Amino acid sequence: MSAPPLPKQDAAEGAPRHRELPRMRRGHAARLLPPTRLGGPIPWVIAILIALVVIAAAGGLALRNLADNARADLSGALTVQILEAEPERRAELAEIAARIIAAQDNVKSVRIVPDAEIDALLEPWLGAAAESEDLPVPALIDIELAGPASPQAIARLESAVRADVPSARVDAQSEWLRPVYDALAALQYLALALIALVGFATAAAVWLAARSAFSSHRGTVEIVHLLGGTDAQVTRIFLRSVVRDAAIGAFIGLGLGIAAVWVLGRQFAGLDSGMVSGGGLGWQDWAAITAIPVGGVLLAYATGRLTIMRALRAML
Amino acid sequence: MDERAGEIVKFDNVGLRYGTDQEVLSDLSFTLFPGRFYFLTGASGAGKTSLLKLLYLAQRPSRGAIRMFGKDMITLPRRRLPDFRRRLGVVFQDFRLIDHLSAFDNVALPLRLSGTDEAKVLKSVSDLLAWVGLTHRAHALPSTMSGGEQQRVAIARAVIARPRMLIADEPTGNVDPEMALKLLRLFEALNNRVGTTVVVATHDVHLIRKVPDSLIMRLHDGRLSDPTGALRFPPRPDNGRAGLA
User: Which of A142, B7, B16, B182 has an alpha carbon 20 to 30 Å from A133's alpha carbon atom?
Assistant: First the structure.
């Protein structure tokens, strides 16, 4: 029999050490594993998880914006209440207090809240009784300070006003909203915890999928190993399908999440509430949200790589 | 002694057990030399496949020392095994072709794993498939091929990267006598013309008789017997054939 037509001696003995080996061509490496179809559960599981992260992140960012806007609006805002039962005396004391306040250094603006405005504020709770002269509603003065409403600034102002109007009470508006801020902060932490949990669930799903794929193709991996394939080559083959599945799932999830956020945004916009309108998303927020799928794919890549490398180390 | 002194494989007091079971191989000590043709014989269950697994680096021994190509395989880090596996060609008893790859892609795999240029892969694989008479089946999947065709694909895959040592486990067990002889001639050609060391596990005595220059190792209950003196170097003039049953 004639000699077999073998290639020159560079593939075996003369082959470079495995550290220097070039990568298999993309198409050939991909074909080492049988083609899978999108009908597998992993892309859809990742899509759902990423959609949840997008919704949680959008919610958290909106709450942060809402709290920041409210704080900014109210940081220098004070309200003075004049507690006086007799309406004419109450109006007179309010004028005196407003003059004293306007004379202070750090006051940017002073406004006596008109009775009609106070009646409108009370109307939803008291109905027609809000306009009754018999109802002892305090006079209100809105103040905007040039700087933040620190305890020292409040004490100084209160002392000046009370010298002539002893029934005056000065409150920082932000103090009224402290429980709301605390609730918003709790919701933001909840959103962060949800994102962390979903990230963990994504890693777990990829870990299970990678282990399952590795078990299914263990025979192929053994053959590739025995033919001189390196761990890095085998890992790359698996990671190709992990990253592809994760990328498909992540971008479907982004679409679903953005659709849900858009619908929720429309619903909240319909409330036409001053505070809620401060919870819109800016371009930086949208940039962060659109980066979530990239983070998901990177997480899947890292988890898949770790899983496959560990499984390979258990083989000879 | 290292590879430069003429050894390609050296086993020293090697034993192998799976888990806590009894040893399937015990006290194996032998040396394989470059360019020789070895037969490994023994009854079913004698440990031929286990010994071949040690040779093609699919298994580490439970005890003893193994040197291959001048390197100690026992202390060799796992990450360096691919370097040595690339010097071997293996024909498995069950072929172990990758089911979803065509005959062409199966044969090309060792070259592609070693990063060979695709134009060279195309030429080398085409030439080798023609040599084993499978050009017309190049794009066939293993599941659509006969046992003999799969066997030839497995052999082509084993030799395509020009291995220093070819290891074949019962390579003629699934083919008719005519094909068995043809495959044997292929191994001989590889041995004689390329200089590849060949180790063929078989219990077919008639096959052994057809390779007059071959050396014979016999396994019995996991122990290597050398009643024929075939493992001595230089071997006896008849390569131990006088001791064959």
Answer: A142
